[in-house]
Amino acid sequence: MRRGFVTIATGKLEYYELAYHLLVSYKYHTSNPLPFAILCEKENRFTDAFDDVVLIDAPRRAFTDKLRILDLSPYEETIFIDADSLAYSDLNGLWDLFRDAPPFGLIGETLPLDSERAWLSLDHTGVFRDAVEKFIICQGGIYYVRKDCPEDFKATAQYILEHYYDFDFRVFRVIPCDETILPKVRKVHQMDIRKGELEYEYIWQEPGGRNEGRFLVHWGTRETRSWVYAKELERLISAVKHQGFNPFRLLFRYVRSFLRTLPSRFPYNFKSYIFKILHPQYRYEN
Q1: Which of 44, 122, 146, 163 could join 103 via S-S bond, C-beta 3.0 to 4.6 A?
Q2: pLDDT value for 284
Q3: Which tens digit of pLDDT belongs to each residue from 114-171?
Q4: Cβ–Cβ contacts within 10 Å for residue 82, how many?
């Protein structure tokens, strides 16, 4: 059974670049890279680095495109990872987590029907009320999918997508969203993607408590425009290219990220001109 990883990039070139950085971080941390595919709406210099490129017809350019993985993944077994992630250790270890998973697997937690932590209450499950046995909360950036995923599951997912506003979610009430509401990280004690170092504490812990090590960091698009992400990316690329950490290149990366946060009212032509100047023309060596 052929296994592989899949990510998605549609819309802005920024998302293709994020997907490429995810791929680079995966290859950096593994000695046995598995096939890695990208689902996208067009090919470009970033998609050239992937083992398989699958074009999406009429993408929605939103999280809902992830449903296309169920049918379009080129692998019998797939682990999907959001493009706004970076690997901090060998992602091949994720297969062990999904060893006994059903055809569609998640990393999360099951909750009783009366849990206040659930994303919605039983009274707001609509047509599914009599079929719900438990609730789950999950990480929306990692999925496991097999080709034998039942058609009923696909139909249910599509129904929820099309009738989203019929459900009164406790979270995600304004805009449909796939991200889990997880306890926030209060403090990062140590982070260095070159060494796979990651130490942090959650808000529920006593100050000074530490959690150590994870497969990846799912940043979220907003945080990929932060100084911290820019620093980690510079560390990664400098290590891949066997170069020293360059503070000037780091500043360059951050300025580019900052420009992406400019209000849409900023003159478009001028902003496009600045992007053109700052966009790197080099290719990373994998």
Answers
A1: 146
A2: 38
A3: 988 888 888 888 889 898 999 888 777 899 999 999 999 889 888 888 888 788 777 6
A4: 24
* Domain span(s) for CATH 3.90.550.10 in the chain: 3-166
23: CB partners within 8 A, 6+ apart = 7, 36, 38, 49, 50, 286
Order of strands, sheet of 104-111, starting from the edge strand that comes earlier in the sequence: 52-55, 36-40, 3-9, 77-81, 135-146, 104-111
Alpha-carbon distances, residue 178 vs 47, 55, 107, 169, 254 (angstroms): 24, 22, 13, 12, 27
For the domain spanning 3-166, the CATH number is: 3.90.550.10
Number of residues written out for the chain: 286
pLDDT the model gives residue 205: 65
**pLDDT tens-digit profile of 102-111?**
999 988 888 9
Q: Report how far Cα 91 is from the mean position of its chain's Cα atoms.
A: 13
205, two tokens: 């812990």
Torsion of CA 86, 91, 96, 102, to 10 degrees: 60
